[in-house]
Design goal:
Keywords: Activator, DNA-binding, Transcription, Transcription regulation. With about 200 residues, this protein is α+β, with helices and mostly antiparallel strands. Helix content is about 40%, strand content about 30%.
Protein backbone atom coordinates (compact mmCIF):
# COMPACT_ATOMS: atom_id res chain seq x y z
CA UNK A 1 0.00 0.00 0.00
CA UNK A 2 1.05 3.59 -0.49
CA UNK A 3 0.59 6.34 2.09
CA UNK A 4 -2.93 7.42 2.99
CA UNK A 5 -4.28 10.60 1.44
CA UNK A 6 -6.61 12.81 3.48
CA UNK A 7 -9.44 13.92 1.18
CA UNK A 8 -11.66 16.83 2.35
CA UNK A 9 -15.42 16.51 2.64
CA UNK A 10 -17.28 17.21 -0.60
CA UNK A 11 -14.37 16.26 -2.87
CA UNK A 12 -15.19 14.56 -6.16
CA UNK A 13 -12.57 11.83 -6.52
CA UNK A 14 -14.01 10.18 -9.63
CA UNK A 15 -16.34 11.03 -12.50
CA UNK A 16 -17.55 8.72 -15.29
CA UNK A 17 -14.98 10.36 -17.56
CA UNK A 18 -12.08 9.91 -15.14
CA UNK A 19 -12.67 6.29 -14.12
CA UNK A 20 -9.34 4.51 -14.01
CA UNK A 21 -8.05 1.07 -13.16
CA UNK A 22 -6.85 0.54 -9.62
CA UNK A 23 -8.06 -0.44 -6.17
CA UNK A 24 -8.47 1.89 -3.22
CA UNK A 25 -8.91 1.21 0.49
CA UNK A 26 -11.11 3.50 2.59
CA UNK A 27 -9.53 3.61 6.06
CA UNK A 28 -11.70 6.41 7.46
CA UNK A 29 -14.69 8.36 6.19
CA UNK A 30 -17.63 7.76 3.90
CA UNK A 31 -18.02 7.91 0.12
CA UNK A 32 -21.15 8.42 -1.95
CA UNK A 33 -21.34 6.71 -5.34
CA UNK A 34 -23.93 8.19 -7.67
CA UNK A 35 -25.16 8.70 -11.21
CA UNK A 36 -26.76 11.75 -12.83
CA UNK A 37 -29.50 12.00 -15.45
CA UNK A 38 -29.61 14.36 -18.43
CA UNK A 39 -31.07 17.12 -16.23
CA UNK A 40 -28.18 16.78 -13.80
CA UNK A 41 -30.25 15.27 -10.98
CA UNK A 42 -28.18 12.99 -8.76
CA UNK A 43 -29.15 9.41 -7.93
CA UNK A 44 -27.11 7.78 -5.18
CA UNK A 45 -26.30 4.12 -5.85
CA UNK A 46 -24.45 3.12 -2.68
CA UNK A 47 -22.54 4.60 0.25
CA UNK A 48 -19.21 3.12 1.29
CA UNK A 49 -17.81 3.28 4.81
CA UNK A 50 -14.70 2.51 6.82
CA UNK A 51 -12.91 -0.63 5.63
CA UNK A 52 -14.49 -0.80 2.18
CA UNK A 53 -12.44 -1.28 -0.98
CA UNK A 54 -13.49 0.25 -4.30
CA UNK A 55 -12.17 0.47 -7.84
CA UNK A 56 -11.49 -1.81 -10.78
CA UNK A 57 -8.72 -4.13 -11.99
CA UNK A 58 -8.82 -6.62 -14.83
CA UNK A 59 -9.40 -9.58 -12.48
CA UNK A 60 -11.70 -7.94 -9.93
CA UNK A 61 -14.49 -5.39 -10.14
CA UNK A 62 -16.22 -3.53 -7.33
CA UNK A 63 -18.79 -2.06 -9.71
CA UNK A 64 -17.60 1.53 -9.51
CA UNK A 65 -16.75 2.22 -13.14
CA UNK A 66 -18.85 4.95 -14.74
CA UNK A 67 -19.97 6.44 -11.42
CA UNK A 68 -19.29 9.67 -9.58
CA UNK A 69 -17.53 9.15 -6.24
CA UNK A 70 -17.70 11.94 -3.65
CA UNK A 71 -16.51 12.17 -0.05
CA UNK A 72 -19.34 12.72 2.45
CA UNK A 73 -16.84 13.61 5.17
CA UNK A 74 -13.09 13.91 5.41
CA UNK A 75 -11.74 10.54 4.31
CA UNK A 76 -8.46 8.64 4.41
CA UNK A 77 -7.85 6.67 1.21
CA UNK A 78 -4.88 4.74 -0.12
CA UNK A 79 -4.24 2.94 -3.38
CA UNK A 80 -3.60 -0.81 -3.46
CA UNK A 81 -1.59 -2.39 -6.26
CA UNK A 82 -3.06 -5.37 -8.08
CA UNK A 83 -0.18 -7.59 -6.95
CA UNK A 84 -0.43 -6.54 -3.31
CA UNK A 85 -4.17 -7.11 -3.36
CA UNK A 86 -3.87 -10.59 -4.87
CA UNK A 87 -1.03 -11.52 -2.47
CA UNK A 88 -3.10 -10.29 0.46
CA UNK A 89 -6.11 -12.41 -0.53
CA UNK A 90 -3.94 -15.49 -1.13
CA UNK A 91 -2.31 -15.19 2.30
CA UNK A 92 -5.55 -14.54 4.19
CA UNK A 93 -8.36 -16.72 2.79
CA UNK A 94 -10.74 -15.99 5.68
CA UNK A 95 -10.34 -12.26 5.16
CA UNK A 96 -10.86 -12.83 1.44
CA UNK A 97 -14.14 -14.64 2.12
CA UNK A 98 -15.32 -11.82 4.39
CA UNK A 99 -14.37 -9.26 1.75
CA UNK A 100 -16.27 -11.15 -0.95
CA UNK A 101 -19.30 -11.35 1.33
CA UNK A 102 -19.12 -7.59 1.91
CA UNK A 103 -18.78 -7.00 -1.82
CA UNK A 104 -21.82 -9.18 -2.47
CA UNK A 105 -23.81 -7.13 0.05
CA UNK A 106 -22.76 -3.84 -1.53
CA UNK A 107 -23.62 -5.03 -5.04
CA UNK A 108 -26.99 -6.29 -3.79
CA UNK A 109 -27.70 -2.89 -2.21
CA UNK A 110 -26.67 -1.23 -5.45
CA UNK A 111 -29.13 -3.36 -7.44
CA UNK A 112 -31.91 -2.78 -4.89
CA UNK A 113 -31.38 0.97 -4.97
CA UNK A 114 -31.47 1.02 -8.77
CA UNK A 115 -34.73 -0.96 -8.65
CA UNK A 116 -36.24 1.42 -6.10
CA UNK A 117 -35.20 4.44 -8.15
CA UNK A 118 -36.90 2.93 -11.19
CA UNK A 119 -40.07 1.60 -9.57
CA UNK A 120 -40.68 3.03 -6.11
CA UNK A 121 -42.43 6.27 -5.23
CA UNK A 122 -40.49 8.92 -3.31
CA UNK A 123 -41.81 7.82 0.11
CA UNK A 124 -40.82 4.19 -0.51
CA UNK A 125 -37.40 5.26 -1.80
CA UNK A 126 -36.78 7.32 1.33
CA UNK A 127 -37.86 4.51 3.66
CA UNK A 128 -35.79 1.92 1.80
CA UNK A 129 -32.76 4.21 1.88
CA UNK A 130 -33.08 4.98 5.59
CA UNK A 131 -33.49 1.31 6.48
CA UNK A 132 -30.37 0.34 4.53
CA UNK A 133 -28.36 3.20 5.99
CA UNK A 134 -29.44 2.25 9.51
CA UNK A 135 -28.24 -1.31 8.92
CA UNK A 136 -24.79 -0.17 7.76
CA UNK A 137 -24.24 3.05 9.69
CA UNK A 138 -26.71 2.80 12.56
CA UNK A 139 -26.08 3.53 16.25
CA UNK A 140 -28.60 2.20 18.79
CA UNK A 141 -30.49 5.02 20.52
CA UNK A 142 -33.33 3.56 22.57
CA UNK A 143 -36.10 2.32 20.31
CA UNK A 144 -34.57 4.28 17.46
CA UNK A 145 -31.38 3.83 15.46
CA UNK A 146 -29.42 6.98 14.69
CA UNK A 147 -27.86 7.02 11.22
CA UNK A 148 -24.22 8.05 11.63
CA UNK A 149 -24.19 10.27 8.56
CA UNK A 150 -24.63 14.06 8.19
CA UNK A 151 -28.05 14.07 6.51
CA UNK A 152 -29.81 17.31 5.59
CA UNK A 153 -33.09 17.29 3.66
CA UNK A 154 -31.16 18.24 0.52
CA UNK A 155 -28.72 15.37 1.01
CA UNK A 156 -31.60 12.91 1.44
CA UNK A 157 -33.11 14.36 -1.75
CA UNK A 158 -29.84 13.73 -3.59
CA UNK A 159 -29.72 10.20 -2.23
CA UNK A 160 -33.16 9.28 -3.56
CA UNK A 161 -33.32 11.42 -6.69
CA UNK A 162 -36.10 13.76 -5.55
CA UNK A 163 -36.63 17.45 -4.83
CA UNK A 164 -35.82 18.86 -1.41
CA UNK A 165 -39.38 20.14 -1.07
CA UNK A 166 -40.88 16.67 -1.65
CA UNK A 167 -38.45 15.09 0.79
CA UNK A 168 -39.20 17.70 3.48
CA UNK A 169 -42.94 17.03 3.27
CA UNK A 170 -42.45 13.26 3.53
CA UNK A 171 -39.98 13.48 6.42
CA UNK A 172 -42.36 15.78 8.31
CA UNK A 173 -45.15 13.22 7.87
CA UNK A 174 -42.90 10.37 9.01
CA UNK A 175 -41.99 12.39 12.12
CA UNK A 176 -45.68 12.84 12.98
CA UNK A 177 -46.11 9.06 12.59
CA UNK A 178 -43.15 8.50 14.98
CA UNK A 179 -41.31 6.57 12.27
CA UNK A 180 -38.32 8.91 12.38
CA UNK A 181 -36.76 11.59 14.57
CA UNK A 182 -34.64 14.41 13.20
CA UNK A 183 -32.04 16.73 14.66
CA UNK A 184 -29.45 19.12 13.31
CA UNK A 185 -28.00 17.19 10.37
CA UNK A 186 -28.97 13.93 12.08
CA UNK A 187 -31.73 11.42 11.51
CA UNK A 188 -32.95 8.45 13.55
CA UNK A 189 -35.46 5.81 12.50
CA UNK A 190 -37.53 3.06 14.04
CA UNK A 191 -36.34 0.13 11.91
CA UNK A 192 -39.31 -2.02 12.94
CA UNK A 193 -41.83 0.62 11.85
CA UNK A 194 -39.99 1.28 8.59
CA UNK A 195 -39.82 -2.45 7.84
CA UNK A 196 -43.52 -2.83 8.58
CA UNK A 197 -44.36 -0.02 6.21
CA UNK A 198 -42.23 -1.59 3.49
CA UNK A 199 -43.67 -5.03 4.32
CA UNK A 200 -40.22 -6.43 5.02
CA UNK A 201 -39.08 -8.84 7.69
CA UNK A 202 -36.73 -7.00 10.01
CA UNK A 203 -34.30 -8.99 12.11
Amino acid sequence: MTHFNAIPKGSLIQTPETSKDGLFFLKEGKLRLYKTNQEGKQFTIVILGKGNIFGEIDTFSFGTRGLYIETMEESLICSVSKQNFEDFLAARPLVAMKMLSELSTILKEKDEMLEKLALGDVRDRILHLLLKLSERFGVEDGEYVRIDLPLTHQEVANLVGATREAVSVILKTLMKENVIETGRKSLSISPVKVAEILELTYS
